[in-house]
Amino acid sequence: MVHKTVYLAGPISGLTYNDATSWRTAVTRRLAEHGIKCLSPLRAEVHLRNHPGALSDCQTVEENLEAGCQVLAMSTPRGVVARDKFDCTRCSVILLNLLGSKKVSIGSMIEVGWANANDIPIVLVMEDDGNCHEHAFVRESCAFHTPHISEAVEIVKAILGTY
C-alpha cells in the first residue's frame, strides 16, 4: 500500500486558532474521502482553542501559562520545529496555503526548503500577484500553483491517486 500523506503548510502566527485551522479541517475532510491523510502543524495544539487572540510565532511556556493553556512538549519552540520538520520530510506532498497572507510566514518558508531538499512536491495556493510571499524561490520551489484551495485539493488527489 502506498503511503498517502499531505502536510498542510501555511501561516499560523498572527491568526486566531479558528482562522489557522478552518481551511485545514475542510481540506482534511475532503482528502480523507480519498484515503489521503493530512498532517496539520496544529494537531497537537488543541489547548490553543481557548486562546482568545492571535497566535504568536513561538508560544513560550510563560505565554501559555499566562493564557491558562496546558503546556505540552509539542508547544515549545523546539517541539514545534522538530514535529514540523519530521512531517515535512516524511509526507508525500505539501499543500502550502498562502492566500491572503498579511506578512511573510518564516516557518512556512523553512518548510518549503525542507520539502524541496527532500524532493517532496509542493502544491502552492497563492494569489497570482500581490501576495507578500511573491518570490522566485517560493514559486520555483513549488511544483504546482493555483489561486484556489479547491483546485489544490484536486491536484493533490491527482498526485496521490490510485497507482
**H/I helix tally:** 6
Distance between the termini: 10 Å
Helix/strand class: alpha/beta
Helix share bin = 25-40%
**Average pLDDT for all residues:** 85
In the CATH hierarchy, what is the class? Alpha Beta
Looking at the structure, the CATH topology is Rossmann fold
Total of domains? 1
Secondary-structure arrangement, i.e. CATH architecture: 3-Layer(aba) Sandwich
Question: What are the salient characteristics of this protein?
Answer:
163 residues, 6 helices, alpha/beta, 5 strands, Rossmann fold, five-stranded parallel sheet, globular
Break the fold down into its secondary structure elements and pairings.
Elements: E1 5-9, H1 17-32, E2 37-39, H2 61-66, H3 77-90, E3 93-97, H4 106-117, E4 122-125, H5 136-141, E5 144-146, H6 149-159
Parallel strand pairs: 1-2, 1-3, 3-4, 4-5
